[in-house]
Write a structure and sequence with these properties.
The chain is mainly alpha-helical. The protein has helices at 8-24, 36-41, 44-60, 63-78, 82-98, 101-116, 120-136, 139-148. It has one domain.
């Protein structure tokens, strides 16, 4: 395991993706936060269905309910053991790499459109959430994440 790359930056990216879902969407009753291990076990199609259902629920939620959802999601991911985080990151990376270039582009385009559809306040909130998460990473983790991110 010593030669294996650190997967925390990938987990950070996963957290960003899942938490950003909460920044755009919500519902009136408490929204169940998905179990990260259970989520990773779903097929991409099942994940897409669940993601759409969560989005519909979050769109109907109050800002406080959306915030509670994001906080619970963050806490759930942070409480995973290091081994579980590494396994989840590896599964997520493997699934991403298994996608066709067209599927990857579609997902990236959907995310881009999702962000474009946010209000300025929602975008500011998302930036604050990302900065807070990045502050928790070690300098090595931040460097590794920067190396993996595409330059625009």
């Amino acid at each position: 395991m010593k030669n294996r790359p650190d997967h925390r930056p990938l987990l950070a990216a996963l957290l960003l993706a899942l938490s950003s879902l909460g920044a755009v969407t919500a519902q009136a009753a408490p929204i169940e936060v998905p179990d990260p291990k259970g989520w990773a076990a779903l097929t991409p199609e099942q994940q897409e269905e669940r993601r759409a259902a969560l989005k519909r629920q979050l769109q109907q939620a109050t800002p406080a309910e959306r915030q509670a959802f994001r906080q619970q999601l963050r806490e759930r991911l942070e409480t995973l053991s290091p081994q579980d985080r590494k396994a989840l990151a590896a599964q997520t990376r493997d699934r991403w790499e298994a996608l066709s270039p067209e599927q990857r582009q579609r997902l990236m385009d959907e995310r881009r459109e999702q962000i474009k559809g946010m209000t300025p306040e929602q975008r500011r909130e998302l930036v604050q959430q990302r900065r807070a998460m990045l502050e928790k990473l070690s300098p090595e983790e931040r460097r590794a994440l920067r190396e993996k991110l595409p330059r625009d």
